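We store chain and fold; example below:
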Amino acid sequence: MRKQRAFTLVELLVVIAIIALLMSILMPAIARVRQQARTVACMSNMNQWGKIFTMYTMDNEDYFATGSTGKMWTTWLAPYYNDPELHLCPTASKPAAPEGSLLPTGSKFIAWGAFDSTMAMYGLEGVYGSYGMNGHVSNPLPGIPDPFGRDLTKNWRRANVNGANNIPLFLDCIWIGGVVEDDDEPPQYDDTCYFGPLGTNMQGFCINRHNAFINGLFVDSSSRKIGLKELWTLKWHRKFDTNGDWTSSSEPPPVWPKWMQSFQDY
């Protein structure tokens, strides 16, 4: 009678070991490809937002919203798009509080929101996302003082200005927006943020969402990736010092938190 051959236990263990080795080699590569795909999809979103902001300013004599009504960009841009998924970077697509919360802060991998009914007066109830707007871009109505005492003469009021390609408009963020100053410190630890009376500042945008970069849209409707240390070299408002203490031109040079030290300098 013919004797049937079968794999021995040793042979099976060798095959399993080889498969495990191949998987250990391939999985990081697959993860990188997935992250790159999410980054590309996020940049595609930014390009769409560039068209949306352009349509708004074209309909409003080149000016941005007043910012004095209490409504956020999610409200005054609403007539120009109908896909709420545009609010989301694919890397941070799950909201921090799906059932609703008063202060649903996001993170580098989690979207902010959704807001509960207490924010309905601002048009934010049920809203969530993972992008935020530069709080210095608005066109306040004349004669109405800022309730927080901010210097509104620093604001970028319209799209057609010199250097618009270095003025951030809309970026990856852990909050709906931020009011940035040149002396804002970076987060001391990865994925942490300090909230002040005006909400988040530079720390809301300084998040390691795309491997030491975030994606951003500029006032001229161009979009590109932005190095985290590069954030301090952008012209967030008219009086912003782009050669401040957190740039490579500073003397002495800045001492970055440990988690940022290996990132590219600007």
